[in-house]
Amino acid sequence: MSDNGARPQGETTLAKALNAGLADALAADDHVVIMGEDVGTLGGVFRITDGLKTQFGGRRVIDSPLAESGIVGTAIGMAMRGYRPCVELQFDGFNAPAFDQIVSQLARYRARVGGRWSLPVTIRIPFGGGVGSPEHHSESPEGFYANTPGLKVVSCSNPDDAYWMLRQSIESPDPVIFFEPKRRYYTRGEVSETPELGLHEARIVRTGADATLLCFGPLVETCLDAAEEAAREGRQLEVVDLRSLSPLDMQTVYESVRRTTRAIVVQEAPRTQGIGAEMAARLGEELYYVMEAPVLRVTGWSTPYPPAKAEGEHIPDVDRILDAVDRSLAY
Q1: Which CATH number fits the domain that encloses residue 254?
Q2: Residue that is last in its domain, among 166, 190, 214
Q3: Which residues in 277-314 are b (16+ Cβ under 10 Å) and which e?
Q4: What's the number of domains the chain is made of?
Q5: Which range marks the domain in which residue 302 is found?
Q6: Hey, which residues does 126 pair with through a beta bridge?
Q7: pLDDT tens digits, 51-80
Q8: 31 catalytically annotated
Q9: Are residues 209 and 178 in the same domain?
Q10: Tell me: the pLDDT tens digits for 224-276?
Q11: Which of 31, 136, 137, 200 is catalytic?
């Protein structure tokens, strides 16, 4: 990651940090290409690729047809020929047409050839609700991919991680599904000169002694708000940003929960079979005799994503998180 010329100086938004990360990845390696619907001339529906086609040309920032399966399939072929494609699936719900290419081909390739080659493909997916969009534009499909061997799955929550995790993903030899919290695109912060953590390391973003909130993506900010509210009531909550969903950095999680003895997992995806269920299982296996309460989950409901006017009832908020904290501390 020697070329950091576009790295923002001073405060910036998460969206602009992603744009800078893509620009520096393109500048650092001629084999990096960007591909997706409207990523070139338009600059992407969220303007994440704004200006990149002008800067690097249409052979490296490629507008594709409206065909997600074709986008990912083409990226797989390009990776086989030595390129490092970074593709954008315009919205979370649009991952379904590409699912076969991702799960049946991309994820399996390294194992299929006995580890002799890999496919360095990064797939960017804006995910989650909170922007008033319909169901196919507001989903949280990260659990599908975290359950798929052969894929790395990560999610950023702030501008610093947006820039550096995207750079690290593109340079990874393995396929990475990179989930971007679309309602946090305008979250502001600074980008450090060097990455503070590896791609698959969790971060303790707030320390506390009473309970651990485990979260990622758009809900990190919500959990920090909940911890601030709890502090006014005399309760000290630790907040862990998982950052990587596959593999999970369980050592950081275990260290936190050993200190607090209580854990609450917060995710926007439906409750059933989600990241929270996996976290609860692993914590139960490892820290059963340490924890003073069962692992609790605050999640989206196990229903299709609701209409925009009802999404506030679906997305976990501060009140629901603090209710779970109360229940955990009551044990």
Answers
A1: 3.40.50.920
A2: 190
A3: bbbbeebeeebeeebeeebbbbbbeeeebbebeebeeb
A4: 2
A5: 203-329
A6: 180
A7: 999 999 999 999 999 999 999 999 999 999
A8: no
A9: no
A10: 999 999 999 999 999 999 999 999 999 999 999 999 999 999 999 999 999 99
A11: 137
